[in-house]
Amino acid sequence: MYISENKTLEIHPTQFKKFLCKLMNTKTTTMKTLKTLTVLTLLIASSLAINAQCTVNFSYTKYFKTNQYRFKITQYPQPSTGVSVLWDFGTAITSTSRVNNLPHFQNTGDYNVCLTVERPSPYCKDSICKVITVCVDPDWDYSVNGRTVTFHNLVIDSNSNTNFIWDFGTGAASDTSHKESPSFTYTGLLDSFNVCLNVRNSAFNCNKQLCKTIFLDTANCKNSSQGITIINSSNNYNLKSKFTPSHGRVNYTWSYFNNLGEHNTFYNQNSSINQTFNRPGNYKVCVEIYDSTRLSQCAYQKHCRKVIVSNSANSCKANFTFQQSNDSVFFSNTSIASGQNPLFVWDFGDGNGSFQGPGLLDPMHVYANAGNYNVCLYINDTANNCRDTVCKNVSIVGPCSANFTFQIFNDSVIYSNTSTSGQNPMYVWKFGDGTGSNQTSLSHIYANPGNYQVCLYLNDTANNCRDTICKNVSILGPCSANFTFQTFNDSVIYSNTSTSGQNPMYVWKFGDGTGSNQTSLSHIYANPGNYQVCLYLNDTANNCRDTICKMVSIYAPSNACSASPTYNVLGGNLIQFNSFANSLSLAPYYVWDFGDGSPLSWAKNPKHLYSNRGEYSACVDVFDTLNNVYCGIKSCIKVEVATSLNENDQSKITFQLFPNPSNGIFNLNWETQGESGKVLVFNTNGAIVLSLEEFGSNSNEQIIDLTDFPDGMYLIQVHGNSNVESVRVIKSN
What we know:
Low-confidence stretches: 1-15, 41-52
Strand order of the largest sheet: 4-3-5-6
Mean pLDDT: 79
Strand content: over 45%
Oligomer: single chain
Shape: flat
Distance between the termini: 104 Å
Structural class: mainly beta
Number of domains: 9
Radius of gyration: 41 Å
Helix content: under 10%
């Protein structure tokens, strides 16, 4: 090795170690050797300083897209010239990019992510690995056929511990499913439901939920395409969108992801493409539809489906046979699986199961009770990415077994005898209320609400067998939840019309995340939209519960009507107003506020007499009485009044009106002494519905009774000898 003072020496650490060992083993130490060691000491110190900057590190965050993460280098070798980068994301995907690393992780589990950097001159190499735990994100789509909805699970996780829980959004605890992609038929009149999918994996403490609103109306643009048609021919897939455009200006973008992290996107495509998937795996295939001529909410649609690509040369098929001996069943696994070490899971249908693998194992199972059991065998051939399931019915018949089902209709119960026995068995029913019967199946009416223990006694003389079963039956008292409502712009008046016993408890859910436990009330919505409003009734006196839900629509202000008010001075303080209103409604109405505290006017073009000179802001609102919606913003105009009336001719009316809102009875206290007056009550159409003449001369109290009128808003005008005051009230039962 040659060393020169005028030349910069670059030493690889391994080369320097070999050279130093050779130098120290030299028998004779010379001045040249000492000089060489001095220079090497300086060089190695410089090399260590350089390598001290050869450190790499990275951070990662969950990206906003499904199952995608963003990786960022946070520490980098300096100088960085010539540095190469290699990412290993613990999947089939690697990267040599310094920025924009956004890998997909489609399987739940731990991933060992490593970053390696290397620089040739001066030599530098460093690596760092971090283990990240990924819980896959829920994702699903749906298609509609009448009131039956098929839910398409788009999670392509191949982790065997991942399971699914669906909530179909009806509010019933039984309307759930653990199937991967279930179907559900909706009843009733509602056309939209909030459906949720939970994805859980206890091995990695994962629990994520995705909820969406589904629409059963097939005319809804979200349902118009209904998804994707998939035809497979030796792993060459024809993918076709079911969307039917009315013109040729529609653009399709196709994309796919697999559970190995691979993905691709194809822009500006036709409605149908052919795609070959050479690698076995679970794929999520999506089509995005851009239609520039449709309404804004329908201009973009996205539909996805899941495709399982197996090794075409190696498939799997689950199957089994069985033999019975009384309550014991011997199962023979006859499945076909060409991969190594396939996994088998048995579900015996009675809450018990068996996990077996590798190999074709044949279990034996003993059933504790007679009955019909749905036995399923699941196969997972991970080598070929193949999964299959087969289910068969197994009937266990004991010597005899008493059993029954029942359906409750108010105070009546229909009992269905499902017992198993020999010929001509004898039955005895005890209904828990002191009565009984020896019929096979029957109905029974209970006189009072309550909890009853119902028992069925079976005597099978042919097999010398007796059995008994008892079940609890709850009879609820008469109660019925119901309500009516009226909408006024963003406000809704809810009137509780439920029937129940004394002191019932109510819970309102307004569909916007808020609620109340009042009996009747009004509610203001922050945004327009359709809201499912539910009233829950709990009648503890009769042990009765009931629920009713109705759809309430809140409309945004409409541009279908507007006003441009003007005015003319007819003489003195008398002003003629003109609304110049435009309305598409067949029954618009108008509300004028003259800005001087005087009563409101319901006329389209009213006249008004101002008392004092000054500048006033007169405003008109236009309403659509057919739809109970506000048509536009308030339109106002400034009015200049040049003269004043004789103030001695004006006297202020003073009164109190309570309660407000009320169930229909309003109390009016007349506080103006020595003066009599009258009361006029207007509905929202501007019509006078009640008139009270000449009160106040003998008594300062008056009752205004609106109990016979519909719930809603009313305008009450109080007329004195020389002035008029008005107030809006709400009548709600």
